[in-house]
Design a protein that fits this description.
21 helices; 7-stranded antiparallel beta sheet; alpha+beta
């Protein structure tokens, strides 16, 4: 259900409750929100919800003669943070307002608040955990299963904070913005809500944007704030505005009705004004493994901007709305940002589902989700360029080629437009800049910035390039080891000659095999050749091995040892003498050390097959000790 449909149903329910006088205890008007799984704990101070309105006049009447603050109604997951003795001791989700879930273990994975504060007493802060539209698009773009995609940033934030792995949560860039100071021991010393927010900022919290106003000026202030959303300058998801009294003592003196505190604050939600437009055609865009429909219609003005496109999500949504080959669409900008079709008029015919992928032209198939019954369209070609979005995203990442301006969504668009097929194609995007400048979401400045970033990336550090190639099992650390040990030119030469990398400390047989298998793929070889023609790879000198009796030699140590305490101590000695110790025998191995030199173990047999000398620990000490 969309926010538009939810709000309409909620308003209808509220009206029925008011006219009938009957309110069910499980009514959405009486319950503040979602309860996640996990350890439940009661809130020290109930997290009540705010009364909502879409009328500026109601806000004026509520404000009365008192000064009020206007701030964003952030669209995420409410969290309550508790500090004692200057340390963060608890994080609870809002839950049902009375009981929340303890997620304190994620305190190092969420941005926007300090772990320690310069305040010795008991302090409680409430705020919103959000995920930006940019990060939402990037994360959703990487999810292949449509049933697992998130409907909006709020759902993604909620799902993320249900994860058990702090490292995964941290990767999703969850950001906390404080919106109220619930408690501090000396509450009567800071009565002003504005001063309380300033105090939180001084303590190190990121706080919600705010502006002081009054009933007389609130209309013009709302218009100015709404414009910030309409012009696309807001990357943080919001679904309205909040006003609250500056006098927190007065605000706390109100009564509680249901789950609303009458003076705690008022939420303002924008009215969604539908605009009708005739459907021109449906564009099908392939991303990861799904081919998604986009309605392209005659340009219309909505919320001060020109809109001509809106995602239709999947085949089921087309059927639910009743979209025909020809029809009139009712379109809104949900939360003043995202164009959305909410209704259809005068539909004629049915939408033709494409039988070929728009990117690679392979046959398509319709899949029906077992869980939800949702119908989605998919490309059947496992090698379709659009299914390699993750690789292109890694290629342009900061750890890779460091190219700004190519987000996941932009890469998907350029793939569908036929501009990108290989990594090297990125360096020929300038051939399409005239067309790109004319497309929605782009312009002279964004294209110029993209061009500068692409040209700058032509001079690349070899470690970044190796990472960008997307070789399985080969990340930044492995790239550093390869470059520092043998250099980039030798890396290329070894791949061409299918000569392994087991002799490089930290690479091992599995990673070495992965590199060689990657290069054996004809498509990868051709792509690398095209790419290298576009780049100037920085020369990084190979680190000279330290002097010592083992300098320049590679050893494999197996079996029990008796002169050294253990094999780790043996390895440490070899490395102190300039040598290397690896885990598997290869033709790069100088010696296999095994006190049972007559053993028929796999390593001994491998050494004999390759002509690698097998020596005992005593022989090692005699020669290198």
């Amino acid at each position: 259900m969309s926010d538009y449909e939810w709000d309409a149903a909620f308003d209808a329910l509220t009206g029925l409750e008011q006219t009938s006088g009957y309110v069910r205890p499980d009514s959405p008007t009486q319950n503040t929100g979602y309860e996640s799984s996990g350890d439940k704990e009661p809130h020290e101070f109930p997290a009540l919800s705010l009364a909502k309105t879409k009328s500026v006049e109601e806000l004026k009447a509520w404000a009365g003669e008192l000064p009020v603050w206007l701030s964003w109604k952030l669209d995420g997951l409410t969290l309550v943070l508790t500090y004692d003795g200057g340390r963060l001791v608890r994080i609870l989700t809002r839950g049902n307002g009375s009981v929340g879930t303890n997620i304190t273990f994620l305190k190092g994975a969420i941005r926007g608040f300090p772990q320690k504060i310069d305040y010795p007493g008991h302090l409680v802060v409430r705020g919103e955990a959000t995920i930006s539209y940019t990060d939402f698009a990037a994360i959703n773009g990487m999810i292949e299963d449509d049933d697992e995609k998130y409907a909006n940033p709020r759902n993604l934030a909620s799902g993320t904070l249900n994860l058990d792995d702090p490292a995964e949560v941290k990767e999703r860039h969850v950001h906390f913005y404080a919106f109220t100071l619930v408690h501090l021991d000396e509450a009567d010393e800071i009565v002003s809500w504005g001063e309380r927010m300033d105090y939180l900022k001084k303590l190190g919290f990121d706080v919600v944007e705010r502006e002081l106003t009054d009933a007389y000026h609130i209309g013009s202030v709302i218009d100015a704030w709404s414009l910030k959303v309409e012009n696309g300058s807001m990357d943080i998801p919001v679904d309205g505005l909040v006003i609250c009294y500056d006098d927190t003592a007065y605000a706390a003196s109100g009564s509680v009705t249901g789950h609303h505190a009458t003076r705690a604050g008022y939420a303002f939600k924008w009215k969604d004004e539908p605009v009708d437009s005739r459907l021109s055609y449906i564009e099908w865009s392939c991303a990861v493994s799904t081919i998604s429909p986009v309605a392209v219609f005659e340009p219309v003005q909505i919320e001060g901007t020109t809109v001509s496109r809106a995602s239709l999500c999947n085949i089921s949504e087309i059927e639910r709305l009743g979209i025909g080959e020809s029809c009139i669409l009712s379109v809104i900008k949900a939360n003043k940002i995202i164009p959305k079709c909410i209704g259809v008029k005068d539909a004629v015919g049915t939408v033709k589902i494409p039988g070929q992928c728009p990117v690679c032209h392979a046959p398509t198939e319709i899949r029906v989700s077992e869980n939800s019954g949702t119908k989605t369209l998919h490309c059947t070609n496992p090698d379709c360029t659009a299914k390699n979005v993750k690789k292109f995203t890694r290629f342009v990442s900061k750890s890779g080629m460091d190219i700004d301006g190519l987000s996941t969504q932009t890469i998907i668009k350029f793939i569908n437009d036929g501009y990108i097929r290989t990594f090297a194609d990125i360096y020929h995007l300038s051939d399409h800049f005239d067309q790109i400048r004319m497309e929605e979401g782009f312009g002279e400045r964004s294209v110029a910035n993209m061009d500068r970033s692409i040209e700058k990336s032509r001079n690349v550090h070899p470690v970044g390039l190796i990472f960008a190639l997307c070789i399985p099992l080969i990340g930044i650390d492995a790239g550093k080891r390869i470059v520092n040990t043998i250099g980039f030119d030798a890396f290329l030469q070894r791949m061409k000659e299918q000569e392994g990398f087991e002799d490089i400390d930290g690479i091992g047989e599995e990673r070495s095999r992965s590199i060689l298998e990657w290069y054996e793929n004809e498509s990868n070889r051709a792509g690398l050749s095209l790419l290298l023609a576009e780049l100037a790879v920085e020369h990084v000198p190979v680190k000279e091995s330290s002097g010592g009796t083992c300098a320049g030699l590679t050893f494999v140590i197996t079996g029990d040892v008796h002169h050294y305490k253990n094999r780790d101590e043996f390895k440490a000695y070899v490395e102190s003498q300039g040598g290397k110790v690896t885990g598997s025998v290869s033709k790069k191995t100088s010696y296999l050390v095994n006190n049972d030199d007559r053993s028929e173990s796999a390593k001994n047999r491998r050494a004999k097959d390759l002509g690698v000398p097998i020596i005992t620990e005593d022989a090692f000490l005699e020669q290198f000790g």
